[in-house]
Amino acid sequence: MPREPGLPGQTVVVIGGSAGIGLETARRARAEGADVILTARSRDRLEAAAADVDARATSAFDAADPAALEQFFLTLPQSVDHVMVTAGRPYYAPLKELDVGLARRNVDEHLLLPVLVARHAMGRVRSGGTLLFMSGTGARRPAYGLALASASTAALQALTASLALEMAPVRVNLIAAGFVDTPLSASLLGDELDARREKLRATLPIRRVVGPADVAALAVHIMINEVLTGATYDADGGQQLISDSW
Predict the structure, then answer these.
(1) CA atoms within 13 A on the CB side of 21
(2) Is the whole-model pTM more than 0.85?
């Protein structure tokens, strides 16, 4: 028997929704009956993504700009159901080579942005709706060059739990992904991308590489299941279980 869609008539906002996990989540949400509102920095990519998913609305701005973020929330409908944040990219550097400007932007994108999104979402995301953030799992293990990434990974998990109490009955959750085969991963790894894929296919318990659609399926499940809040959900194909998969 065909099942009923899980998000009928709901509105899903994806901040960072022009590619990768954000775009796949928008596709999945649309398939479950939701309207989607997309944001991204690149207007061209945003327009292409909006056409792909028949987005209800779009807004091109830098999510790390507090004034632009606030203005965006003022333009939203009075009530939305779910807000997912996938904006931002990781920054890795050993201490001696740390670029202070890039480090500050990384903190803004991975810690200040979720705080500001939560504040602006108060009174706008409905009771039982979701704030959903993205993080990683790789920086949980101490490693050379991962000091900043490790700190932000740990902090975002703690922030999510605290926000779930402050935002209740709005639900707040975090997805921690391992390697995901996205355009962002390709840009970070360059010529090493294919070797990374092959290593993961050989070592991960699932014997394949995690894709954006895998994470999107989890994201939409978290939106649908109204008992989930304050938790971190790993989506890494068992990567943390394999010592030589990093």
Answers:
(1) 31
(2) yes
